[in-house]
Amino acid sequence: MASLARLRSPLFRRIFRQPLARALQTSADTTQLQDKPSDAKPFTVKLHDETFHGYKTDTPSLEVEVSKSMLIEMYKKMTLMRRMEMAADALYKAKLIRGFCHLAIGQEAVSVGMHNAMSWDDLLITSYRCHPFAVLRGGTIRGVISELLGRQDGMSNGKGGSMHIFTPRFFGGNGIVGAQVPLGAGLALAQKYNEKKNATFTMYGDGAANQGQVFESFNMAKLWNLPCIFVCENNKYGMGTSAERSSMNTQYFTRGDAIPGIQANGMDIIACYQAAKFARDMSDPGTTYRTRDEVQRMRSTQDPIRGLQRYIEDWGLASEDELKQFDKDARAEVEEAVEEAKKSPFPDLHDFWSDIYYKGTEPAFMRGREREEVHHY
């Protein structure tokens, strides 16, 4: 069954409020401890009462079973993703990365939370803030950074760039707004056709929410009951345009017609994990447009990494020194990957004739930019 999830943050847009509507909780650290935490056994925490809103479905349970090892691993992954994106930002500003480079700083709760709720054989496709997903779903930091630098060691051999990175479980990274949504529905169709017991997470941003192909995909997914989970990662702006200026209805989780939807707090990683897990079970298988004050407020009060850090410290799962060491380890790992990526050579001119066709299906020859420029396979 297709399902529709919306992960909202204040990097996940202001909600369209009707009179007396309840506002979604978007703080990163409002989850409360229910049981005494244990090093060896899982324990229960309770999310804020307004963590989820539902449309044509019950909402996920606010009580979530977690463990020390799970939360520590989540923190390490979030920190590592943040460090990778910060390194990419520095390389872009140094003009070592050319073209587009869309970062996901501040949205780590979504990528890491969803990844932890997915099975390893589930598939995922997204738009262009894709670097964390590329690593989490089978890639490497070195492979991502090399690709951003246009080097041969990149995950697309240096020819794809920021928006075209793939693994067997991750289908991009897609640069055309909304174009990945029908592709995601197609992946889910293939899973159903081949009788796979997995789901496809099809992600798009609020800026793509009004695309016709998105609604066409909703229709086909529901008509054929595909194992597709549509996720609107709402960061308040689409190419610098705020949601309220572009969308009559910014409650994106209600826009799937007959598809049930969930709105979740995208700044709390435990909420993201619980929402993705719930949706999977249902399926059955850049700052120029933000004011300086807004950016500072988000960093100081709603940073998802700081929210998880507070949980870990308050619940006695790790000390401040241990968390600082995790951050140092992440920085060192990213710095090593960056240096290795810089050593990788640029693609050879001959390489530009490859990867155009699937191996074994190439034509006998191909013309280049001019009539006389011909490559024979």
Automatic annotation (TrEMBL):
Cofactor(s), by name: thiamine diphosphate
Entry-linked InterPro entries: DH_E1, PDH_E1_Alpha_Subunit, THDP-binding
Residue ranges of every copy of the Dehydrogenase E1 component domain listed in the record: 77-281, 282-348
Enzyme class: oxidoreductase
GO biological process terms on file: pyruvate decarboxylation to acetyl-CoA
CDD domains: TPP_E1_PDC_ADC_BCADC
UniProt keyword Oxidoreductase, yes or no: yes
Annotated keywords: Oxidoreductase, Thiamine pyrophosphate
The protein's Enzyme Commission number: 1.2.4.1
Classification via Gene3D superfamilies: 3.40.50.970
Pfam families to which the protein is assigned, alphabetical: E1_dh
Superkingdom field: Eukaryota
GO molecular-function term, one example from the UniProt record: pyruvate dehydrogenase (acetyl-transferring) activity
Name of the protein: Pyruvate dehydrogenase E1 component subunit alpha, mitochondrial
Species of origin: Phellinidium pouzarii
